[in-house]
Amino acid sequence: MGVCALVRRSPHPGSAGIPARLHPAGRLPAGRLPAGTIPAGTRPAGTRPASTRPAVRLLARLLLAGLLLAGCSDDKPTDTGGNGDPALGKYLLLGYFGGDVAPGGFGLYISRLDPSLTSAMEAEVTLDGEEVTLRPLLSTPTDAFYSILTLDYQAGETYTILASVGSRTAVCSFTGPSYPLLTMTAPPHESEFSPGDPLQLAWTYDAGAPEQVHIEAIGDEDTAVMTPVTLPGSATSYAIPGTVTEAWADQTSVLLTVDEGEHFFPFSGTLVGEGSGVATIGWGDAAIVTPGSGAGACQLAALPSADQLAADGASTLTIDCALTAPGGDCADGTPIAFSCTPEGAVAFAPQTAYSSGGLAATVVTAGTSAGSVVLHCQAPDSRVDIPITLTQRVTIMVGAGSHPQIAWDPAEPMFTLLVSAAGALPTPRWGIAAITIGQITSPVTYGTVPGGTVQSYPLFGAPPAGLQAGATYRIWLVGADADTTSLTFTHGG
């Protein structure tokens, strides 16, 4: 397929990054964390994987697309599109779906490989017949970015992407694969293992199962220390043999990754340069382990059911805990005490849980003060700290008329605002973005661009069509901290 080589920075301190290798099945490598995750070394031990945070997942996908494009720059002077004719196939097209991201979307980078050809910003791009919008602030005549901001990727749907520049055309059509959210539950992040003993890996899916799951182990200097393992997607555990872990005794640390890989669907047509295609990205998680005796120590893993709660005094989440010991089981009745910082920010029921079969749980109820909270889970031999956020609910209000006033409460400054027609494939109607983060303040008037902002849609500052009475629309607000709020409403006219 000609996918360009990537480098993803490793969580190992001082490392130079893990080189990507194309898997025979066409997925990007499990040796680096899949797009949509944060390297395990950057999250506190035992916390819920950062891959469940929507804003960060969206950023990771944008970075993937940018890395794909940058990684192909060496091909620009010579790429003929695989058809042997230097007059054809002079554009590289790399697309991605940001599924499971709020607000989600589709993005396509078009890179002009021959500077004598038409600007990449003059392409026409559609997804299932709907226009994919050029983002001029993110584009140049050489590298142009087109996107739909409010499209949610759906498994099982057929997607067709068409692109054209002048008389050259490209098409990519495929059925979207299913990628349930994968969360690694064992071993605990930053825990120890005993070289020569089997090392148990376990993970869960939020729904269903993927086609396959891929396991790799990366040691010092970003070297593979285990032959990669591919299992059916129905698998939720794997024991690394003691004969393998025995060789890890001299490693400073080992990065264990479990991921669903991704699918890459090629473009075809006279516009297409070699390596052009669209990626749908699977989930993955990881943990770093270090060699040690580990004898007699019960290691605690804790997984919250959410990383945010509304500060309403009633919203709840559950913390599921598991105790594991190398080569044996932890005794039933092992106490796990729960507390938080700031003290009293949330309530626990029970305050102390006692394990049964190595498992225990507690229910956390939010307080009424918004802010950051750290939940502490303390077992006799280990402790896990879980950061969560207590959030204020944002209420969006829309006035009357074809160009109504849009307000929100609490009236916190926002980074972007987008109004679109509601539906399976929503069409943007009007959007603005802050030049400096936090400059969009409540209220704003539909179609009027406030100072300190730029209009992102319609393009080139064209006035938007007015809102129609009885039509259904959706408003997206993205805050300075990347938190997203939306409202679907039927306009009253």
Provide a brief overview of the structure.
With 493 residues, the chain is mostly beta strands. The chain is built from two helices and 37 strands.
Explain the layout of strands and helices:
Layout: E1 7-8, E2 18-19, H1 54-71, E3 91-97, E4 106-112, E5 124-127, E6 130-131, E7 133-134, E8 143-148, E9 158-165, E10 168-175, E11 182-186, E12 191-193, E13 199-205, E14 212-218, E15 229-232, E16 237-240, H2 242-245, E17 254-259, E18 262-266, E19 277-281, E20 284-291, E21 299-304, E22 308-310, E23 316-324, E24 335-341, E25 346-349, E26 352-354, E27 359-366, E28 371-378, E29 383-391, E30 395-398, E31 405-409, E32 414-421, E33 428-434, E34 444-445, E35 453-457, E36 472-479, E37 484-490
Parallel strand pairs: 3-19, 12-20, 22-29
Antiparallel strand pairs: 1-2, 3-4, 4-8, 5-6, 5-9, 7-8, 9-10, 11-13, 13-16, 14-15, 14-17, 17-20, 18-19, 21-23, 23-27, 24-26, 24-28, 25-27, 28-29, 30-31, 31-34, 32-33, 32-36, 33-35, 36-37
